[in-house]
Amino acid sequence: MSALLVIGGLTRRFGGLVAVRDVAMEVEAGSVHGLIGPNGAGKTTLLNLISGHIPSSSGRIGFAGGDITRWSVDRRARAGIRRTFQNLKLFRDMTVLENVMVGMHGETHCEIWRALLRTRTQQAEEAAIAERAREALDFVGLLSLADTRADDLPYGSQRLVEIARATVARPKLLLLDEPAAGLNGVESRRLVDLIRAIRSGGTTILLVEHHMDVVMPSCDRITVLNYGQRLANGTPAEIRAHPEVIKAYLGGGLKRRETRTPKQKAELLHAAS
Ligand SMILES: Nc1ncnc2c1ncn2[C@@H]1O[C@H](COP(=O)(O)OP(=O)(O)O)[C@@H](O)[C@H]1O
Ligand SMILES: [Mg+2]
Fold it and tell me: How many domains does the chain have?
């Protein structure tokens, strides 16, 4: 076992608020690692720090043996860190296929003048990228919708397009931010299969998710955040039985719990039972 991602002492402040506080965490290569916690716990902020979308206030992020703490989003993406967003970020007027092709950005070797001249090399690369994008769409079960405008797809399918875009370049690490949000039961079960298939393809996954019926069967290990701090770390069985986790989710006194929907509360109850 070796860690692909090693986070140490990671802190992010927004003014007076400490969204992520002194978090340490390791994600094993080849694993699916869950990141759970109440709304406002700092899960999305932690993903943003790992993907490079925001800089850390202090701490260190190690990836594949190197220190990437100060790397740009693009450099991290080229190194194999890709993500999806809690709020979908598709190009609505582009087709499904074009959206997925965007995920290959940075993998073409043509210089700009060549692209402008549309040389044979460039056309061949574009065809190769389209082919890879079709494979990625086939993988998530959306090949037949390749030419549909992204905005015309139902919500659940749009989430899958984002996953196809994030996996088309075969990343080393995939960060998923609440991929089951808005999915129905059938779609959630398919998502579990998809997550396992992505892992089988050699991609390590860090999964932020509220739906415990997705988290528990997918994850090898789970880290729990609460008020920006690491509350627990362990196997799904250990997390389910962890007194502090049960208390944070189910006990009184945590004001951020009030931001949870009844559905989320029911899921947390289900997870802890
Ligand atoms: N860009 C930002 N500016 C100010 N505060 C932020 C920003 N992003 C997140 N926060 C705050 O940081 C805390 C953690 O948010 P977030 O990481 O989105 O939590 P989670 O994803 O676990 O629900 C919240 O209190 C949130 O309001
Ligand atoms: Mg979030």
Answer: 2
* Domain limit, last residue, from 118, 135, 168: 168
Proximal ligand: closest to the CA of 14 = 1
Minimum-distance ligand 1 atom for the alpha carbon of 46: 17
Interval 174-208: pLDDT, tens:
999 999 998 999 999 999 999 999 999 999 999 99
Chain mean pLDDT for the chain: 88
Burial string for 218-245 (b: 16+ CB within 10 Å, else e) reads bbebbbbbbbbebbbbeebeebbebeeb
- Domain of 42, in residue numbers: 3-80+171-272
In this prediction the pTM is: 0.88
Say which CATH number the domain at 14 has: 3.40.50.300
Ligand 1 centroid distance, CA of 172 (Å):
26
Interacting residues of 154 by C-beta distance below 8 A, sequence separation 6+ = none
| Residues with Cβ within 8 Å of residue 105, at least 6 apart in sequence | none
Looking at 141, 168, 195, the residue that finishes a domain is 168
Nearest Cα residue to atom 18 of ligand 1: 44
